[in-house]
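Lab notebook, bench 4. Still working through the backlog of constructs that have no structural model yet. Next entry is a single chain of 371 residues. Request: give me the structure tokens for it.
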Amino acid sequence: MKRLVVKIGSSTVTTGEGRIDHAYLEMFAQQVARVRDMGWQVVVVSSGAIACGLERLGMSGKRPDDMPTLQAAASVGQGLFVSAWGDAFAHNGISSSLVLLTRRDTADRTAYLHARDTLERLLDLGVVPIVNENDTVSVEQIRFGDNDTLGALVACLINADLTVILSDVEGLYNGNPAKDPNAQLITRVESIGQDIISVAGDAGSKVGSGGMITKIKAARILGIAGIPLVVCSGRRENAVIDAVEGREVGTLFAVGHKPHEITPRKLWIALGDSARGVLTVDDGAKQALEKRGSSLLVVGVSQVEGKFDQGDIVDIKDKSGHLFARGRVSASRDEAELAMGRSREQLLANRLLAEMADKPLVHRDELVVFE
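Model written out:
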């Protein structure tokens, strides 16, 4: 059987008043039932626990901005959330379950594999898992921050054949449709370069081109895993069915053949933990990583940011600030900063840094190149 991951945002599963839209859940469950009849196993990644809790607490107006209140609302709403989904699926003869995750659960390699095994077994049992961030206990340090990233992680965990993100916009536009009436929908993206990222808006943008930046990042990770992604309006009739059947709906982020070097461990590096720092590399180092499959040597590093220790995950950017790789470092930030830019001969002449002369700062086996 093929596997499908569907991510649904809060704005799609709630009404304009911030309440859970039970009619929508029922309609979605009907689509899932049809997709399952077509030979697909389905995992749903959905927000909504906080919205349920705020509604029950009589706080469904403006969303609070303090973490304890949001966590309390998630605690109150978690049962209501899973009950709403459970009822919708039960009406269509489907058993569902709740799986709660945080970055703490995926940063550890063993816990990551246990999460994979749990999802695999649920699918084998014919269950539709409902995956959500564990908002009751999560804080900034262990939050995914967005369910687009969580959805990509789940898709990689179960080796999905397709991921669909149901959004409040039709897909990726060549401009911001909220500001530019002439913005056109991009129906197919073959590769994600700086041009596509710039269209989506930067990480600090609240809207970008319809809030697309996290979806672009998810698409890039899914691309190296060989998993296509469709981003479309969640309110479009039969959106999931159309995506599964290959009809043109929203924006398709297509993929080529899955690279042989993208192992489950590399996917864990790409998605399983948040980056603790940034390495900026020169043009020669970038070319070596992208074209020759090399490891990253400290001599190619021109700038170091963040606080990281040996074994942490870091982002790797070029001189323009474009993120093109991610990997695990073999040295701390202090060591990398002292050694960066020095020649091999200079490193060998320094007793404190001699070990880094030939030792990769990021070994190829623990490096993921996005393009």
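Notes after review: The chain has two domains: 2-253, 275-369. The CA atoms of residues 225 and 258 lie 6 Å apart. Flag for follow-up if needed.
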